[in-house]
Amino acid sequence: MLTPRTDHLIDLALDEDAGLGDVTSRAIFSEKDRSRGFIDAKQDLVICGLEVAARVFAKVDPRIKAAPLVRDGARVKRGARVMTLSGPTASLLTAERTALNFLQRLSGIATKSRAFADAVAGTGVRIADTRKTTPGWRALEKYAVRCGGCANHRASLGEHVLIKDNHIAAAGSLAKAVHLGRAAAPHSAKIEVEATTLAEVREALRAHAEVILLDNMTPAEIRAAVAVIAGSAIVEVSGGVRFETLREFALPGVDVISIGALTHSAIAVDLSLTILPLRRAK
After folding, report:
1. Which of 121, 177, 260, 272 is a Cys-bridge partner for 130, taking CB atoms 3.0 to 4.6 Å apart?
2. Rounded CA separation 114/146 (Å)
3. Has 17 been annotated as catalytic?
């Protein structure tokens, strides 16, 4: 995940936190002071973002050695160490908050995604994210979703045609929106249509939509829609699905459930950096 965009995000975060320097660490520790430390989990979690965190430390000071002890996507128990560190003491402390911000946020998404993926295990239904991501963080957050065992929906508006309610309203009809979308889209692009009623499902089928998104339907309505679709299109369910009710929506005939909460409502997990007693320069 160390793309130019990720590097840019790290640069912005470091400028925000340490652009004026770290007056506390530089006042207490000399350039020659060295320390060792580790990052450990304060709760059970799925780890994600180790490479990004290591990059933060390297950008602050190339002399810092950051060694991950597990891989992204691993289930980590409370108390387990996930990374060891060594290098100039002041630099370790300067990088600490920014590195942990990336690691805690991405691990929070991966942990939440793992819970959702586990909840539908054995049903044949895949859980996917949405574009409800932190601006600028989309690639990282979607990577975290994959680390948690869920799938990615489109990463941008340019990936495939998804005709939603406002497209239909502005175009005048579902059929017209599909016709115009298909005429202008690349030949390989799937046409996905959002449907909120059985009448719209039937209209989407008549328009030969490859994917039908059942939006904010109840489980009973979804069963009826699946019967109407009868395997003629990929079935996606979205809207109104909570973790507590997930299995009620993971019904036979449903292929994908897309859930914005994987990213927009994930809570950062608890990880901390412990600095071991300093080797004071002589």
Report:
1. 260
2. 9
3. no
